[in-house]
# Entry
Amino acid sequence: MRIRALAIPATILAAGLCWLGLQAAVYPSTPLEKRVKALADQLAPDLIDIRRDIHAHPELGLQETRTSAIVADYFRKLGLEVRTGYAKTGVLGILKGGKPGPVVAMRGDMDALPITEETDLPFASREKATVDGRETGLMHACGHDIHTTLLLGVAAVLSAVKADLPGTVVFVAQPAEECCGGANLMIADGAFKDIVPAAFFAYHVDDTLKAGKIGYASGFMSANVDGFTLEIKSAGCHGASPWSCVDPIVVGAQIVTALQVLVSREFNVHNNTVITVGSFHSGSAPNIIPKSAKLQATVRNYGDDQRRILQEKITRLVTNICEAAGAEFDLGYEFGTLSVYNDPALVGRALTVAERILGSKTALVEQKPEMGGEDFSYFGKIAPAVMFNLGVVPPDRETTAVHSPTFVADEAAIPIGVNLMANIILDHQMKPAGSKTVAK
# Structure
């Protein structure tokens, strides 16, 4: 699908949204790598057009009907086997290479956020939706328009060299990363029931790195996103006679403070843990002790063992404080998105490719694990997985904040990301290590 190019002001071009300026930094060393780079460069204008079209028409999770139609149509034109309907709008594009080999997958997420865009881009979103009873703008403020575009670009490049491609590549266009656990929903809908990848790869845009830089972490990359709700109950009484009832505000305040002591005194400082009570609501008058206090918290940590230990300790703490005060309570603890774990072997091998393709070790930036969440982690339960951070900070800025109404990205990153991921996948397929194979 060819999207009409939009006229871009000279100020934006000067800011680095043109992709041509960074090409001299890439040094492919084999004929196939040279061909992949040439294809990525050739595709760049069309991919940038597609990215701008998707950016101008963002859709919320499980509602990505227009975006998924673009993806499915693009895959069909490449000659891929296309499967649709996973988690409502999820799409698989299956590319069978010309040689026997393993199955591998690349994921790109499609959904946007309920944020009103405040950029001056000519392709800025003007879309709106009603969320929680209020009208709001919609925006690709987390770069999923770029993730989807990268998915299409890598599919196009590898389709063009499929005679040299061993095995099968599954391109996963995933809905609802931001809101509803789209990765897990696709798995539950049987997306990989009859075609099981031996490895998963993905990108996420990075709002701290310039285009041409790749961020990586070996091992944990993102956190478990768990949480709890707590209601502390009381009969209620007059503030002038607080001995007449349990004060749920005081009990709640003790719990908020004790949770921070729990983190600092019961957990190894090397096991990063965050407990944040972000909501505490109680009472309506200064002289009345209310009948309840309601708290909501987010709990961040890494790994299955750590999250279970946290649940046990938080439950014990809440129970003991409430019982000491004679307060009844309802505690609801929920396990949310799993932490992303980047397989060290996959990371190490991909970094070898990345250094060669990007031309320098300085283009590779080792990063600490983040406390944010990412449901790419669910694919890592099927097979080893790795997610790389793709620098997108425009050259005239130091940072560009994701989940912000002013988020902008340097489109120079698109052909760079396509070139690199296509080569990482080719390398994996040509020299598999204990990978599952498909018949040819």
